[in-house]
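Hey, does this match?
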Amino acid sequence: MQTFKPRVSIVFPSYNGVEYLKKNLDSIKNLENNDEIEVVIVDNMSLDSSINVIESYERDINIKLIKNKFNEGFAEACNSGVKNSNGEFIFITNQDVIFPPEFFEKLAKIYSKLKNKHEIVISPALIFENGKIHYFGAKNHFLGFSYTPETGEMLPKKKIIKNAHRLSGGSFYVKKEFFIRMGGFDKEFFMYYEDTDLSLKILRNGNKIYTTNDPFLIHQKPHHPLSDLQYYFLERNRFIVIIKNIRNIRKIVPMFIIVEIILIFHSLLTRRFKLRLKLYLDLFLKIKYFKKIRKMSKKVNHLLPYQAFSKTLDPLLLGDLKKVKIFKILLNQLNKFLKLV
């Protein structure tokens, strides 16, 4: 019996995603050349009926389902899915996206057009169901922040392919061999910023990341305020990105302290002061580990100078407080200082 060899392996973790999986899997079922695609789903011990929904599609889609006995997080679940995939290319995404039928045919053409002697990554745009941008390239700041400034704007209709400073962990197409060679996602991140870390490693290696609005993916999940868990990992992992990827850290310490004071003030207003103190304590207790990973990261490739990163911050980072005048003024003043670094 001949072993099935897919052209592309779609890889994503699932966790309590029953409200999203049906639309997701229906869109995969309707992809052009569906018989050349496998879907590797790593379930992080869902407590709802996600597994039942996934298994109901096994007759229509080439699905490989891995059932974890505990929640190992987004990063490690993706690594596990890639290791168990068979495609020459992998597409890492989320359980709550919707694929247009011609998605992979368009991606393959872009890859063929842009690929040279160095391997590339293509990270298509993610939009919400109302057509507004979730991801369309991203900005990396020397203080560890990474975000799409255009979030909430309408996706341009004219076809665009452009260089990106960061891929999205919810939407990127790459050769499996290259992803593994780059070390995959660092499981320490658990969730959030694992894509920023991998992107910086790819750029440090001399490879390029591209984004495009044609094709794009639809993100079913609407934009919600951050939960405490999301806030914790976003802020903690920002520190890890700096430690692993940026050299001359001492030169940015003054600005780093100023920003942290502002963020402490912000945490008081948003009732997350205790959570922020816990974050600082957890980071302090891991100092030895951080020294170790910084040393290891230096051995892999030269760290990036902080000058290679963006210097200014956008109102988007203020969340709901961007409407408060005092915070707009503070941000403008802060950006004046940041430009001096």
About this structure: The chain has a mean pLDDT of 91. Residues 228-338 form one domain. The longest strand covers residues 8-14.
